[in-house]
């Protein structure tokens, strides 16, 4: 009997060693972007299956019994976070209400943009002589404002085919309008429609190019003559088992080819992020549309790169670190890990370099703890990425090199508080966190390996948007709050008192 036990233990140890070696070997290739070869391969992604070895399953086996005892707690915590809509879901209530601020140049204002030379779409554009705007959420109105005393409507572009204009880009004598089109009403699926209008004659705009992508519009940027439109959503299926792998150009269906779909070995999702590149100087050129099987919850675009971010909760965090299993904590058993369990909110960052011809090239990816607020949580300088993130441990800034290798990181600031605004200006970063008062932190990033906090300012309320005014002033736009103490309930003869914050409109 003793011999059998020894053989069993030896077998288990050998299996663990073999599985660990397999995992280490596989991890060397997870950053490599793969090309889809067939519809069957896409269907596997659509059905949440994958070829080869399930890394998480192997880790769970290798870390028994700890993984089994931690499993239920991980699932429960994910459900709690989703119900609270705090760390997992996007801050749409905050970020969608950012106030635009005009940058004065020459004799008229332009769209407030984050990165110089990277134009952003908006519902209103101007070239100084004409204003282009979305009216009544259906039509595009071109208004002649050359003579302020005789403002008049030059022309109107009416929406057809039940499409709704979302955004516009103005480039030379071309107006790009990005629409949403309801495709399958029963599934509430939207397509992205891009129309390019020749507006040399402002009184008679002519549509010279139209493209329809079978995913919902997310965001867009224009860098020089190159327009990038990002759409996202689940892979779509037609018939019984055919994944949609086409788009429409000027009403004609064109197939992308399966080689236009890319994926990473360690990312399993049915969500695709599609990036369309259009040369606005050559509308006759072939459209460049690629699909990346990754989720997206935030995006940042510099002159050199496009960064796609995915924010999620690691519900698979029911595996304790292997490195600690055979130490003191391992000897104390799984309950020690229960006590140290943390909500594992993380952000995956995918970097795509923009080549000289406008093509995109996948560069690298990384994974960090915490989440961002919006595009202003990121900034690139000298091809190095700076990113502001927060979670229950606090708010921090991490600096990466061109290959997304970490260079430096700040300490955790304002533990237990939520980050509401962030802005990078030169070698400084400004962060706003809030719980009962608004600390505005100033962080020096000049030494990338050792970023440090220079100071903080505490004022009532909180800012949700920060804008540079000049070298010595920063504009903060947000909410003024006041502290309210109220009696909540009566239990066992004692009054329970708690503090909440609300603005003047009574919104918590």
What is the averaged pLDDT score? Answer: 80
Question: Main β-sheet: number of strands, strand sense, barrel status?
Answer: 7 strands, mixed
Query: What class, by secondary structure content?
Result: alpha+beta
Helical percent range?
10-25%
Beta-strand segment tally? 37
Q: Which stretches are low in confidence, meaning pLDDT under 50 for 5 or more residues running?
A: 49-55, 69-106, 337-341, 485-508
User: How many alpha or pi helices?
Assistant: 8
Instruction: Identify the overall geometry.
Output: globular
Q: Give the N-to-C terminal Cα separation.
A: 66 Å
Task: Give the percentage of residues in beta strands.
Answer: over 45%
Radius of gyration: 26 Å
User: In what order do the strands lie side by side in the largest sheet?
Assistant: 1-19-21-20-14-13-4
Short descriptors:
508 residues, alpha+beta, 7-stranded mixed beta sheet, 6-stranded antiparallel beta sheet, 47% strand, globular, disordered C terminus
Written account of the structure:
With 508 residues, the chain is α+β, with helices and mostly antiparallel strands. The protein has a domain of 174 residues. Helices cover 16% and strands 47% of the residues. The chain contains eight helices and 37 strands. The strands form ten sheets. Strands 1-19-21-20-14-13-4 form a seven-stranded mixed β-sheet, with no helix packed on it. The protein is globular, with a radius of gyration of 26 Å. 30% of the residues are buried.
């Amino acid at each position: 009997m003793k011999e059998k036990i020894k053989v069993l233990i030896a077998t288990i140890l050998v299996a663990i060693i073999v599985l660990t070696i397999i995992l280490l070997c596989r991890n060397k290739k997870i950053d490599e972007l793969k090309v889809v070869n067939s519809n069957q391969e896409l269907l596997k992604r659509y059905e949440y299956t994958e070829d080869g070895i399930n890394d998480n399953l192997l880790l769970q086996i290798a870390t028994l019994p700890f993984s089994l005892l931690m499993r239920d707690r991980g699932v429960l915590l994910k459900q709690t976070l989703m119900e609270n809509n705090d760390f997992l879901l996007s801050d749409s209530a905050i970020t969608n209400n950012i106030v635009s601020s005009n940058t004065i140049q020459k004799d008229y204002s332009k769209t407030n943009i984050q990165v110089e030379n990277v134009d952003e779409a908006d519902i209103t554009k101007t070239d100084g002589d004409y204003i282009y705007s979305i009216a009544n959420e259906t039509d595009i109105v071109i208004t002649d404002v050359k003579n302020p005393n005789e403002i008049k409507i030059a022309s109107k572009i009416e929406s057809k085919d039940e499409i709704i204009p979302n955004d516009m880009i103005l480039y030379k004598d071309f107006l790009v309008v990005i629409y949403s089109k309801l495709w399958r009403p029963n599934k509430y699926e939207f397509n992205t429609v891009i129309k390019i209008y020749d507006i040399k004659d402002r009184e008679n705009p002519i549509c010279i190019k139209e493209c329809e992508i079978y995913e919902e519009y997310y965001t867009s940027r224009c860098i020089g003559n190159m327009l990038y439109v990002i759409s996202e959503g689940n892979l779509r299926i037609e018939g019984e088992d055919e994944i949609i792998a086409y788009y429409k150009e000027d009403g004609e269906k064109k197939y992308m080819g399966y080689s236009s779909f890319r994926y990473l070995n360690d990312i399993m999702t049915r969500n695709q992020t599609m990036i369309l590149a259009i040369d606005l100087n050559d509308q006759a050129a072939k459209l460049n549309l690629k699909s990346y099987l990754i989720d997206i919850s935030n995006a940042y675009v510099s002159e050199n790169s496009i960064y796609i971010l995915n924010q999620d909760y690691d519900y698979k965090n029911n595996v304790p670190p292997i490195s600690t299993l055979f130490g003191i904590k391992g000897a104390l058993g799984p309950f020690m890990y229960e006590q140290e369990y943390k909500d594992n909110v993380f952000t995956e960052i995918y970097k795509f370099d923009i080549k000289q011809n406008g093509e995109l090239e996948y560069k690298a990816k990384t994974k960090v703890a915490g989440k961002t607020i919006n595009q202003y949580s990121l900034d690139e300088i000298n091809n190095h990425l700076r990113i502001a993130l927060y979670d229950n441990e606090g708010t921090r800034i991490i600096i990466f090199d061109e290959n997304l290798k970490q260079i430096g990181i700040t300490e955790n600031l304002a533990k237990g508080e939520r980050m509401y605004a962030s802005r990078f200006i030169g070698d400084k970063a400004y962060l706003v966190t809030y719980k009962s008062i608004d600390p505005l932190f100033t962080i020096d990033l000049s030494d990338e390996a050792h970023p440090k906090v220079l100071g903080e300012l505490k004022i009532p309320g909180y800012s949700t948007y920060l804008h540079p005014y000049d070298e010595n002033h920063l504009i903060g736009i947000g909410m003024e709050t006041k502290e309210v103490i109220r009696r909540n309930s009566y239990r066992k003869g004692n009054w329970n008192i708690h503090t909440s914050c609300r603005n003047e409109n009574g919104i918590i």
